[in-house]
Amino acid sequence: MAHQDHNAVVSGQFSPQAEAYLHSSTHATGTDLALMLEAVRTRPEAVVLDMGCGGGHVSFQVAPHVAKVVAYDLSAEMLAVVAAEAERRGLGNIVTQQGAAETLPYPDASFDVVITRYSCHHWQDMAAGLKQMRRVLKPGGIALFMDVVSPGKPLLDTWLQGIELLRDPSHVRNASPAQWRWLLAEAGFAITTEQGFKLPLAFAPWVARMQTPAVQVAAIRALQQQASREVSDYFAFGEDGSFVVDTRLFVAKGE
Would you state the pLDDT for residue 27? Predict the structure, then answer.
């Protein structure tokens, strides 16, 4: 059996699902998007990096209020969908660039704002990607990081990583809030605000969006049905498989 490298796995997982992520209500909405907009809308001259842009929802949200947005992603197909949607919306200041988080092709201090949302848990080397974001951030710039977070407790962490991987083999790891704080500090960021949210995930759209094979869907459901009370209560497993995860938004500046 031939095996791809991790970046190829990520691209292979998301490229066929580009349209699904564009139209995903989970990704297109959220209080965090409004908070991100509030953080950047007072910077009309800003050049913004949307790292791991996916369906482009951060780019679409902030583009009307800044000078330029670079939508950056591993998947060429995802970027094509973002470019087409930006044109449809009349957002001519969005440009796309394909590449990996760990190797940003930009000089130091290229961006006034750097943002990543629901992307870091796919990166092969999260620490390296965060250091790249710090490198390309201008002095006085701001950074925003949003992702699903691990509960931190071993029992709950194992369950979260397990069902994430069964659903999507490009998953690497959801970091805990404590790990996020440490990684951001190591990358040279100083956190200014931190806010947590509960994200409900309807099971059927969650697996359909990634076209999870039936055998893996069955495995997730079997695990849910065998979960201990502590696990079931924490994730609020529903009869249909739906559940709730924790997310965290960090706003930071370069130290």
Answer: 62
